[in-house]
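Researcher: Please predict.
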Amino acid sequence: MSRQLVQYHPVLGHLFIPGLKTRMPHESGGYLVQTNSAGFRSSHEFTRSCTPGRSRVLVFGDSFTAGDGVSNGQRYADLLEARLPATEVYNFGVPGTGTDQQYLTWRECARDIDADHVVIAIQPENIRRNASAYRLGIDGAGQEVYYPKPYATVDGEALVWHHQPVPPGTRTSAELESTVRADTGGRFRPLRAAVNALGVKDLVQRMTRFQPQPEYDSPTSPDWLLMRAILRQWIREIPQPVTLFHVPLYHYVEGVAEASHLQARLREVAGETGAMLVDPLPEILALPAETRRGFRFASDIHPTPAYHARLADTLARHLAAR
């Protein structure tokens, strides 16, 4: 997530700067970013009422949905709109967010927007972000700092929200409270940095069968119980039909990690809530290895245009059938 593109938000933690139109440098050669007046990455404004004769789908997610690394029109939500005649797709994706912040985004910014369907995109790393009160980032001086974010804890069946409003500014590692967690981007950070520097990341992951998100391994893990509670409450409040859309990480796409526990947890929460689950991973794994490697960039793990196109195809088939 580029801090050039977002600004502080007292409820969500951060949101895109409204009215942006800029080109971001990237290993792909750069990509275009345009935001609307509501602070979401879109080439058009969001209106409350549906356009006569058109249905509307709202999509929520993190940077994989917001489209880091690709231009607006190359994202799966924009491609979905092109694949579904007479359908508007509003993309409420915000980079660097967890499912908790995405739920708050719906509640704060989209609850009153007319729609026919809601898609909640599950990028597996969201589970780690939900359990964190701070997220590691880089400030304007190039220094590592921690940005406060909203977070929830579970009290029985209820969610208790903290950091509301979200504290402004940043914190150093020494200033973090010892009683809360901070998201530093995953486990074994120093080791991963060393492996990346040696250029043997893919080899090491295949040899070790590295599991990027062990929080899904057990249905009673604290982080999964929190994510489950967030999804259950959010889906209960949504009046429209809901689709849970699994957006697989490259570890699963390229077959270097086992996704069965993650898939089981998503099936469980879909069964509990009545949401439909769309999981493109089984079809993706049937593709040739070189095709699947083309679904992320050489260094950046975000989806390439080819991966966005594949995600749009899968989601379009599901929504057309609905």
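Model: The mean pLDDT is 92.
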